TrEMBL record:
Its main location: cytoplasm. This is Epoxyqueuosine reductase. Binds 2 [4Fe-4S] clusters per monomer. Belongs to the QueG family. It comes from Marinospirillum insulare. Keywords: 4Fe-4S, Cobalamin, Cobalt, Cytoplasm, Iron, Iron-sulfur, Metal-binding, Oxidoreductase, Queuosine biosynthesis, tRNA processing. It comes from the Bacteria. It is an enzyme of class 1 (oxidoreductase).
Length: 364
């Protein structure tokens, strides 16, 4: 059997193996990322990335995957659904005394889980090559490297090139059969695997539900997000003071924001995850703001162990909760909780607690 035919067969096997490992979908792209690098550079030049200066680094490696991992000839892109069952997202958003945590962060951190499975997939690919003399002779030194939401990798662009979906007006990768409630991962490989057809058609049509629903009006154009106004950026990436004008618009969202996905018509097709690791932990899907605000740092570190929330840090956690408490209906309990932390030994916490207390004073 010619080598190309063997590579075609191997590509089919890889997709089957990915499914067996629990991935929801798998596609393959080449290393030409089309228009996506140019889009990123234009977005960065406009300053829409805010304080995320790290996004300006290693642009050459973002443009050319073979510079990030030498020898890369193809990229295996995978999808893993994360939406837990019974999320009550809309109900929690409508309960001002409850804390809203982005649905992806309710369970365990996805990074290690996806990288571990991608590494297992790489092992299985290597075994397939070793068991096929012609492939082994043609590709004696198979190398690979796994990524998920890490390193200078254009994940959504790669997934679109691999046929997994289109990038919607909300900047999310959307697939007709699963919406956008999923993680992405990549395996860079030193094999010239046949690429799938890129997902070209945009199925957003005339819909602008995501733009209308955005609490802070962070979308400046179709598929263009001003991160400086995005609640996910404000609550996770930004480490300083949240602009005062945006604080009232954040409501009770203390870690991330899902509004642009909640209103997307395509997410009605989203399946719930089969991964119990992504199910809510420590009742983070229905906790009271005050209860979370009263966590001391030791409790925060204990309860966020193995969670993506850990990366935001305790100071930002208190900052975000102070803003949410400032937006909640006034009560003696809330005033007491805020007052107890008005002298917390950090200027960021002090500033946002003072804002929350002043806000309740103004309202009343």
């Amino acid at each position: 059997m010619p080598t190309q035919a063997l590579l075609n067969h191997l590509a089919k096997d890889i997709k089957h193996l990915a499914r067996e490992l629990g991935f929801s979908a798998c596609g393959i792209s080449g290393i030409d990322l089309g228009e996506h690098p140019a889009y990123l550079e234009k977005w960065l030049a406009a300053g829409l990335h805010g304080d995320m200066q790290w996004m300006e680094n290693n642009l050459d490696k973002r443009r050319d995957p073979s510079l990030l991992e030498a020898g890369t000839q193809a990229i295996i892109s995978v999808r893993l659904d994360y939406l837990p069952p019974e999320t009550q997202a809309v109900k929690i958003l409508g309960s001002a005394d409850k804390a809203y945590v982005s649905r992806y962060a309710l369970g365990r951190d996805y990074h290690k889980l996806i990288r571990k499975r991608l590494s297992k997939l790489a092992e299985q690919i290597n075994q397939k090559i070793a068991a096929t003399p012609e492939l082994k002779a043609a590709f004696p030194e198979f190398t690979s490297r796994a990524f998920t939401d890490s390193a200078p990798v254009l994940e959504r662009g790669i997934a679109q090139q691999a046929g997994l979906g289109w990038i919607g007006k909300n900047c999310m990768l959307i697939t007709p059969k699963a919406g956008s409630w999923f993680f992405l991962g990549e395996l860079y490989v030193s094999l010239p695997l046949p690429a799938d057809q890129p997902f070209i058609k945009d199925h957003c049509g005339a819909c602008t539900a995501c733009h209308v629903a955005c609490p802070t009006q962070a979308f400046v154009a179709d598929g263009v997000l001003d991160a400086r106004r995005c609640i996910s950026y404000l609550t996770i990436e930004l480490k300083g003071s949240i602009p005062e004008a945006l604080r009232p618009l954040m409501g009770n969202r203390i870690y991330g924001c899902d509004d642009c996905q909640l209103v997307c018509p395509w997410t009605r097709f989203s399946p719930t995850t089969k991964e119990t690791d992504f199910h809510p932990r420590h009742q983070l899907d229905s906790s009271d703001l005050i209860d979370l605000f009263n966590w001391d740092e030791a409790t925060f570190l204990k309860n966020t162990q193995g969670s993506p929330i850990r990366r935001t840090g305790y100071i930002s956690w208190l900052r975000n909760l102070a803003v949410a408490l400032g937006n909640a209906p006034a009560s003696n309990t809330i005033i007491e909780a805020l007052t107890a932390k008005q002298d917390y030994p950090d200027p960021i916490v002090q500033e946002h607690v003072a804002w929350a207390l002043a806000r309740h004073k103004e309202i009343n």
